[in-house]
Write a structure and sequence with these properties.
CATH class: Mainly Alpha
Distance between the termini: 35 Å
Radius of gyration: 20 Å
Shape: globular
Largest sheet: none
Strand content: under 5%
Number of helices: 9
CATH architecture: Up-down Bundle
Number of strands: 0
Oligomer: single chain
């Protein structure tokens, strides 16, 4: 009886691990394809007249004091200060809860990969910012949006971690926030004149790619494997 239960439990874990791996690879593939397609479109300037310029002009013509204040507030949630502070808190919180480094590494490595890729692509593509009066003073080139990338990674990784073992309703709320907040951040960056819409879409795709990669890696790493490397029993004891 015990052996049968243990075997069923082992098979369930294997099936779950396989499902996580397949889902993670699928999301990473789709996100990478979308990101690559946007890079090609930007280099060829295919979306500039059809989509980017009209959208930027429309938002510029409908600026107002109240909307500008709201958009600057939304932009804060993708800024360096907010993102770094949240990452540090999340990593420390995850370590204190679990006493191993799997989830802190998930937060930090996923964001580091996304930011490094963002900066590299900025150097390669070297896209100019929108030629309208900016309401903020962004640094560097335009593609992809660093704010969109960082907010997408931050809120998706938080939703993944906090949502573990929660009810469906709780996970639905977490993932709703993981969509709504980055979308608000991305819209704010276009409204404020810092980015083209395709910069923001590319940031979302890049964030989704690295979140999928990080989540897949975290699911494959077991606390015992990290403890073995560190020479401890998993609770920090030698």
């Amino acid at each position: 009886m015990t052996d049968s239960f243990a075997e069923r439990f082992r098979r369930t874990r294997l099936h779950h691990a396989a499902a996580v791996l397949v889902a993670g690879l699928a999301v990473a593939f789709v996100a990478a394809w979308a990101f690559g397609d946007l890079i090609i479109d930007v280099i060829r300037k295919q979306d500039l007249e059809v989509f980017d310029r009209p959208f930027v002009r429309y938002l510029a013509l409908h600026r107002s004091g109240d909307i500008t204040a709201a958009m600057k507030a939304a932009s804060f949630f993708g800024g360096t200060l907010f993102v770094v502070a949240c990452l540090i808190v999340a990593a420390v919180w995850a370590y204190r809860r679990t006493h191993h480094f799997r989830w802190p590494l998930f937060f930090l490595a996923t964001m580091a990969g996304a930011v490094a890729t963002d900066n590299l692509v900025k150097l390669v593509v070297h896209r100019a910012r929108p030629n309208i009066h900016p309401l903020v003073h962004p640094f560097g080139t335009s593609f992809p949006s660093g704010h969109a990338t960082a907010s997408a990674v931050l809120f998706a990784t938080l939703a993944l971690y906090v949502g573990r073992g929660r009810t469906f309703g709780t996970r639905a709320v977490l993932w709703s926030l993981a969509v709504i907040v980055p979308v608000a951040v991305g819209l704010s960056r276009v409204y404020l004149g810092a980015h083209w819409p395709t910069d923001v879409l590319a940031g979302f795709a890049l964030g989704a790619f690295w979140t999928a990669v990080g989540a897949t890696a975290a699911a494959r790493i077991r606390p015992g494997s990290i403890a073995a490397v560190r020479g401890t029993d998993g609770a920090g004891r030698p």
